Amino acid sequence: MTGQTGTNRPTGRRSMFRQLSYVIGAVVAASGLAVMPAALTSAIYQEWADFRALVLASVITMAAGGIFWRYVGRRGSELTSREGFAIVGVSWFVISAFGALPYIISGAIPSYTDAFFETASGFTTTGSSILADPGALGHGLLMWRSLTQWVGGMGIIVLSIAILPLLGVGGVQLARAESPGPTPDRLTPRFSQTAKRLWLLYAAITVTQILLLTFGDMNLFQAIAHSFTTMSTGGFGTEASSMNNFTPYSQWVVIVFMLIAGSSFALLYRGLRRPKAFIESAEFRLYAVIAIAAIIIVVGGLIATGNGWSESTIRDGAFTSVSIITTTGFGTADFALWVSGLQVFIVGLMFLGGMAGSTAGGVKTFRIGTLANAAHADLRRLIHPRGVFVTRFGKKAVPEDIVESIQSFFLFYMFLFMTGTFLLAFIDSNSGTELDLVTTATAVASALGNIGPGLADVGPTSNFAGIPGVGKWLLSFLMITGRLEVFPVLLLFTPDLWRK
Known about the structure:
Layout: H1 12-33, H2 36-44, H3 48-72, H4 81-99, H5 101-106, H6 112-123, H7 139-154, H8 156-163, H9 171-178, H10 191-214, H11 220-231, H12 248-261, H13 265-273, H14 276-280, H15 282-307, H16 311-325, H17 340-349, H18 365-383, E1 392-393, E2 396-397, H19 400-431, H20 437-449, H21 469-483, H22 487-490, H23 495-498
Antiparallel strand pairs: 1-2
Helix pairs in contact: 1-3, 1-4, 2-3, 2-7, 4-6, 4-9, 6-7, 6-21, 7-11, 8-10, 10-11, 10-13, 11-12, 12-16, 15-16, 18-19, 19-20, 19-21, 20-21
């Protein structure tokens, strides 16, 4: 592997280390700069202790990132796929480590384990929290909490590609490793231009939601915070009751924008120019069918179990279904109190997710559809051994290598879910907490799918403070693994990634 051209160019592992340091340092510096809007918020509300903490955290993060970017790292040639996966996998752990500084320095979350968990939950748009009442935080820290989700939603690496073209490295390799879907969808030949257009669209839709929410019962700060965490499908709120205490108008606005956020942003960009693109997209049609079917089943189940036919029942059913499918995690009702059949259905929805190229987590609609069609093709082969059957999604044939990649992804995903559940249960039993199986399984499913709430002790009205410290580190690892679509993190543990 070749590093920077010249007579003293580094080679091999040293070259890879300097290339990683160069890009990761720039990304860390950019994440430090992202703290400044939160510091400005503290200044506006005259919360000077938080202001000083946020500024200090920003300076430390930018300085550390700048040192690695300018003095340790070195810009090399075009990134390889191997370097792209390594950079993205390492970056998300590093920025979560630095992103915890505002909570630590301010004293709002004195435990570094808890602060890292809260930050990783923010950047990965999971929405799980150790805070019983987020409203106890100052406005600046609440803004930082929301900003971690908004920045992490579209992707920190993608943002860096958009605003730091001076990196001069292969953006598509980074985007391929970070983008939520099988392959990054390009809108232009240069991915840096695609990243800019996606981020501008993301910001424009966020501003639209902010304006609509201010017409309801939210003040400007609440509207900004909830729009940031809706469009990122993150689910961090400003109140302990999530969305429950806001008016039906605000809740319906959030439902609509959660559905938008669960859609492919590349498709949204094309659809705004040519609305027929939505109908032509097989994945969008499947996404819409799943969302509508889930709403009908949940609302029907609530009515059948005595909740009555009312606007509030329909709204709670629609809100919960959309929130779980898009992995946003907001709540207007405690579904942990619903009948067991509906709870099982909700857990099933946790494994779906939105469209590829959205900010949603989970397995993704494209993978679900492809897996179902591949399974159907296998059944037909059993009946017709000599037949030739092609896996299709919509009218398009899915290449065999993509099918195999999706099958591998699902295998690893379920393996992580089962292994994570076992490990968390083991950790709990050896720490004296002994959380039940429902708590541990849904906590792991929530972390891996970037959803937020689970059931039982980690339900919609509870939090993750009761999870042991080692368990929080495990869940943080699973949150980052799920956000990066499994492979970039697992590849960090393979020797081939680091060989010359």
